[in-house]
Amino acid sequence: MTTDKKGPIGHRKGTQTAKLNSDKAIQETNSSSIVSKRSVERLYYPTTCHSSESNPSLEDAHFFRYFVQKPQRRAPLINRGYWIRMEAVHTVVKQFLQSNPESRKVVVNLGCGYDPLPFQYLAKASTNRSKTIFVDADYPDLINIKVNKISASVDLLRVIGERYNLNQSYSAVKLASASYYCVGCDLSNLGDLERALNACGVLCEGWDLLFIAEVSLTYMNTEAADKVVQWASGVSRGQAQFALIEQILPAGADHPFARTMLRHFNRLNTPIKSVYTYPTIEDQISRFSSRAWNSVVCTDLQTFWYNQVSAEDKRRMEDVEHFDEWEEFFLFCQHYILLVASTGNMTNKGKGGVSVRSSTVDEAWNIDTFDSPSLRRRWGAATSTSDRSIVYFGGLSPTTRLATSVLVTSKDATSFSIKSATYPSPRMCHAIVELAPERFLMTGGRGSPATPLSDCWIFNSGSNEWKQTTDMPGSRYRHAMATISPGRVVVFGGHVDNDASAEWLLFDSESSMWTTLECEVKLGLHISPGFCWLGKYGILSGGFNRIGDIYEHIYKWSICGNRINLELIQIGNDNLVRAAAQMAPWTEDSVLLVGGIKPRGLLQMNDSFKIINLSEMSTINIEIDNKEKFPMLIGCSLGVDTNDEYIRIRTNIRNSNANIWMFHAYEC
How confident is the model at residue 369 (pLDDT cuts 50, 70, 90)? Predict the structure, then answer.
């Protein structure tokens, strides 16, 4: 029998070409990430040392600058995301180097890119260079470029010390010194990698090894990545540790943030692969514990932010750069883990994060949608009207902040722009409520985070006109408002221009005056809290403080004269405490809570909608049937029409045509 060999050969060539293209795309991720890390370095790691001329040791110097020719300032959200990744790595490296001081330490960075981690530590006086070795490992082409950059820098050569040549048979070792090695090797070729480490002389009896994989193994086929995890647990002749930063899917691939994240990496031709086999913290722990790692600690980066980043560091970051994207930042952190595994014993064992579990379901709702180009915006403000319509103003479009108004009718769900000779300036993060039939109060908001606003406007929907009224006493944005009686509005919290600003304000439209309300309990100025009025009392829950921590209390509030009275509520459901959630009256003793960010763990889709019954101190849990349409409930606005059991939500789905989300409630 004859065999046509052209097919298999052609197939092999095609497979090889596909791998080469994939490897090239993966290496390109280094080009982007190194620029982002340089942006973080310039902003958040100040230094007075720029060369070895002023400081021969280069203690605390900026080392990313040697690998980034043209620095760029990234957006604040990108800076924060890379800062916490970098900080997580540094935390592990510092703890490793400080442990067991009698042992020699080896740090192997798997998929290192141009990261200058070794130089940052070898330049420190506190590092015992005689007992510390760093090994950078990555694709040969990428390592060759890194070695050329090092060789061209007097400062970098000064840090690593005298170079020497290894035997030519160890060609994978591209650079060698007493404390630093560069290895060019495909990580899927573990035989080559182990031979290179042996050539470097770091696999010695009693030497401790730390392997670092910062978003690198996930680009490999999962089977090959798992072999790296297994191999690393057995290659050391002393104790070994493994630090992994990688993506997870805590609410599955259908979660709106997960969909966006996966689509981003697919678009770059660098799909992340491990997330499908190991989507949760528990899965990642099992991945390592089943491959000879005796102790495994795993946490998402949100938990790392709360437990490992000091309040002082958080405040320092706020002073460096205005930041107002806490929701997106925490969604990012909830989808990334820091895992530290050891072949020995560690002080902390098991999971350091939070299990993400949905509540039991009491009702089910179905999503219906319609499209309106004028509503492609987020961080605007909407309010329900007495005639069962919704007024929506401002917000952030895909390109700019807006100053347009939209009226959404409840009968045919159409929208149209509202024209007015005078109107508020473009803004976002403001608030709007109905003062009385056909009259609405809009307050505050911001342009950029550095330009908060204090102006207030009244809109008349009968005449389609805006009219400016008395400014608030001080600017604020991300505040909350509720109408307590016709023409009278209470304002609480928000991001203010100074800490001495009043927590509670009252506006009277008849006199156009603002009054500061007194309250015995000083809560602090909650940013984006849940807030509403039920007729006899109001509800206040959650919100951020200035450094991104989420308040974990729910209060009943009432007003008597110029005084606010507070009563702490104990319901005992951690899914109720959120920041940036939307809240609206449901019945005279219950509220609807929608979306937002939890202080611990990702808010599951089945927990995104809650009805809180204040008379029975209970909750009703809502399941959304058609999850493929589930929106990103961040930066959205909520309007409730309970007469026909429809809930209308203006939300911020990126790259989506559906902008009004109508939820029809029915019993299970």
Answer: low
